[in-house]
Amino acid sequence: MNIIVCMKRTPDTATKIAVKDGQIDPACLDTWIINPYDEYAIEEALQLRDRAGEGKITLVSIGPPEAQETIRKGLAMGCDEAVHLVDDAFAGLDPLGAAKVLAAAIQKVGDFDLVYTGWKGVDEDHGQTGIYLAEFLGLPHVSMVVKIDDIGDGEARVEREVEGGHELVRTSLPAVFTAQKGENEPRYPTLRGIMGAKKKPFQTWSAADVGLDPAGLQPVQEILSVTLPPQRQAGRIVEGETVEEKARELARLLREEAKVI
Amino acid sequence: MSTNNVLVVAEHLDGQLKRISFECVTAAAEIAGSLGGQVQAMVLGTSLPAALAEQLGQAGAQTVFTADDGSLQDYAPERFAQVVADTVRRADPAVVLFGATARGRDLAPRVAAKLGVGLASDCTGFAVKDGRLVITRPMYAGKAIAQVALQSSPQMATVRPNIFPPAEVAPDRQEATIEPVAVGEIAAGAVVEEFQAKGGDRPELTEANIIVSGGRGMGGPENYVVIEALADALGAAVGASRAAVDAGWRPHSDQVGQTGKTVSPSLYVACGISGAIQHLAGMRTSKVIVAINKDADAPIFKVADYGIVGDLFDVVPALREAIRELND
Ligand SMILES: Cc1cc2nc3c(=O)[nH]c(=O)nc-3n(C[C@H](O)[C@H](O)[C@H](O)COP(=O)(O)OP(=O)(O)OC[C@H]3O[C@@H](n4cnc5c(N)ncnc54)[C@H](O)[C@@H]3O)c2cc1C
Ligand SMILES: Nc1ncnc2c1ncn2[C@@H]1O[C@H](COP(=O)(O)O)[C@@H](O)[C@H]1O
Fold first, then answer.
1. Do A211 and A237 have their domain in common?
2. Using H for helix, E for strand and C for coil, what is the string for chain B?
3. Closest residue to atom 1 of ligand 1, CA basis
4. pTM to 2 decimal places
């Protein structure tokens, strides 16, 4: 079972966002992680590979040269090899452009049964790239996968999260899955994994290496401006002699003042 | 050059249009008004009840495209996307809207990919400037709000639920023109075979008007009965922090926050939740926030409109009792 996992480095979820000149201040993005949903994808892929007892996992990631460090963390978790897509033309890609680059790279890697992406990046929250990618690869997709019930020769049955429950989906393979948080907890790299990651195959490809013309990658989604959401003010602590009094006062406020119950 | 029309791809379940579809019609009417175009809608399915197209018309759609075919019984992304893409090519709208639901967020990117165009996800506002959309959408789980434009046509977006009021169904509105869409044979590798309901009849988190959430302060899965009782007194959904989900007390589908659900109910009651930045990201746009926590310094109080400092196991039952008294 050969699996390709698309992995993006994203700012740490604890990042406090700042705005400068009407755009996100790059200076506030100083700590980087593997996009959490891509970590779920990696964990699923590792378990699938290990259950199958054979196959390899290839990480594919578009990012600046510094993203190499984050990609190595994915290798340290246990993935077998990595392709890092680095090119000036890849700065500021939107999901449409990112999917074009990923599709070209994945076709070049070749020989896979499954492509896994995260369901969305916790940076710009698009939740699109994996699905665009499936179309460009001419493959079926299942998005927001929380569980793989059964995966075998050329076919899989998986569960995706929807409002009020799960949808059970049957798909042919190869396919593209986008990972929602499921039951698996992503593993931490072991010391041995970290040491071993340094020796794993690591390729760096440019736009030309995957046969793409930078002109076709211009984003069609333009961020005109960014603002911070209105700050919330601390409200009031409801006081009273007893718990019952406080609760009664809160209920009254919610009905008469806030008018929400 | 496209028309100035705005097409809503509607969603239905058990023979009923979903509320989000009427919310999309409201957004579509605003945009179409500024562009000088029509609101149009589209429904897909098998043996579609006539009421669906009728109601979309009564809500404000002037044309309703209906794709009614045996092959559209079970959702299959490739097939559904092909039918929508074909209809978009034929109707040539300026804008196409979907609900930002599990279905809409699955279908819209596949349609956009087929058309080779961009897509704005989970949008909360639309304005028209010089004939093009300026779209408002949160990023970084709401820690930043972006204004974006799409340089491809049609301009496509998914609309966040609970932002736009649902368009009213007015029975005396002029009838919509129904345009049946022919559906050919379309291969699909992935097909939804079954829906497994989670069970319980509390409202869905992302659709709920009131949410009562419990965090690590709940102490264990068995204690959630305390907040479930409050939730039921309020007709509310039950949510959780990641700490509670990671401890295995609640399913992940209940998680609110940056790696869970983004919610904006009119009332959010946080019980035994400290208010970490990732949790706040998911619920900070709630209209009114109530915090119940025994630590007066918990960060959650900095964003709460009302707070009670105290043990949730005393406060929550007392609050339920007070609400019951109020309702009597
Ligand atoms: C990559 C990443 C993504 C994350 N995504 C999310 C996310 O989507 N959602 C999310 O919620 N978190 C997320 N987190 C976790 C987040 O950082 C916090 O760890 C988490 O929100 C804490 O949950 P909590 O408030 O329930 O627990 P705690 O921080 O432990 O707070 C428990 C609170 O309960 C109070 N308490 C205890 N007992 C009682 C009692 N009897 N009565 C009243 N109050 C009591 C305490 O005073 C305390 O304030 C994420 C973290 C990371 C690293
Ligand atoms: N630059 C990138 N490199 C590799 N994978 C990416 C990149 N951008 C997006 N993806 C994949 O697409 C998923 C969804 O991203 P998005 O559409 O940006 O929310 C991510 O979880 C990744 O798996």
1. no
2. CCCCCEEEECCEECCEECHHHHHHHHHHHHHHHHHCCCEEEEEEECCCCHHHHHHHHHHCCCEEEEEECHHHCCCCHHHHHHHHHHHHHHHCCCEEEEECCHHHHHHHHHHHHHHCCCEEEEECEEEEECCEEEEEEEEHHHCEEEEEEECCCCEEEEECCCCCCCCCCCCCCCCCEEEECCCCCCCCCEEEEEEEECCCCCCCHHHCCEEEEECHHHCCHHHHHHHHHHHHHHCCEEEECHHHHHCCCCCHHHEECCCCECCCCCEEEEECCCCCHHHHHHHCCCCEEEEEECCCCCHHHHCCCEEEECCHHHHHHHHHHHHHHHHC
3. A13
4. 0.95
